From TrEMBL:
Organism: Paenibacillus herberti
Function: Enables the recognition and targeting of unfolded and aggregated proteins to the ClpC protease or to other proteins involved in proteolysis.
Name by which UniProt lists this protein: Adapter protein MecA
Signal peptide range in chain numbering: none
Source organism, top-level taxon: Bacteria
Pfam families in alphabetical order: MecA
HAMAP family: MecA
Gene Ontology MF annotations: protein-macromolecule adaptor activity
Length: 204
């Protein structure tokens, strides 16, 4: 579980599928109201407080984005003021500390994304993907000093996706960056057919 601050009132939590399995939670469970999911959220908020000093009191907007290869990205935004149903501000002692007032949004992403520290690893991954005849597509981005390869998961069947992920995981690592963040803040180096372009430009 990785937690990072996006702003004074916003954090991003990255849960790998291993994080979920360790807690006996399946991917589809995140869409259900079950005790394990509530326990996981409480654990996330405790860790956010201990690592970042992020206090989860008051209303929270929680966005859960399921990603096909990486796991789950949970974005938590804290409200400014705790408002009661009659419109008045609640006192701290009136709020049940064990209860979170949440508005939860659930989304699913169809993009497989892996991050690479070294450009040589990007080239190696691309050559392996082409040699294995897995894909010649993809997009290459530069984001915060890292290289990110992104692939549309809807264009391939599950076994092909798994093989694609296995190659990418050999050279890079799963990233918590979402497609929307990449589009807005990343720089598109190769907006299409990245694997083919990389192999053409850097053939040995």
């Amino acid at each position: 579980m990785k937690i990072e601050r996006l702003g004074q009132d916003k954090i991003r939590i990255f849960l790998t599928f291993d994080d979920l399995l360790e807690r006996g939670i399946q991917k589809d469970d995140m869409w259900r109201e079950i005790p394990k999911v509530h326990e996981l959220f409480s654990e996330m908020m405790d860790q956010a407080y201990s690592e970042l000093g992020f206090d989860a009191n008051g209303p929270l907007a929680v966005e859960v984005i399921a990603m096909p290869a990486q796991g789950m990205v949970v974005i938590v935004t804290r409200g400014k003021i705790n408002i009661s149903s009659d419109g008045s501000q609640m006192d701290e002692e009136d709020a049940d500390e064990d209860m979170y007032e949440m508005e939860v949004t659930l989304e699913s992403s169809d993009t497989i994304m892996y991050s690479f520290r070294d450009f040589e690893d990007v080239i190696s991954a691309a050559k392996q993907l082409k040699a294995s005849r897995l894909t010649e597509e993809g997009k290459l981005y530069s984001y915060h000093g890292r290289w990110i390869l992104a692939f549309d998961a809807t264009s391939s069947e599950a076994p092909l996706q798994n093989a694609l992920i296995a190659v990418l995981a050999e050279y890079g690592e799963a990233t918590s960056v979402t497609s929307a963040v990449l589009e807005e803040y990343g720089k598109a180096i190769m907006p299409s057919d990245a694997v083919r372009e990389l192999c053409n430009h850097f053939s040995s």
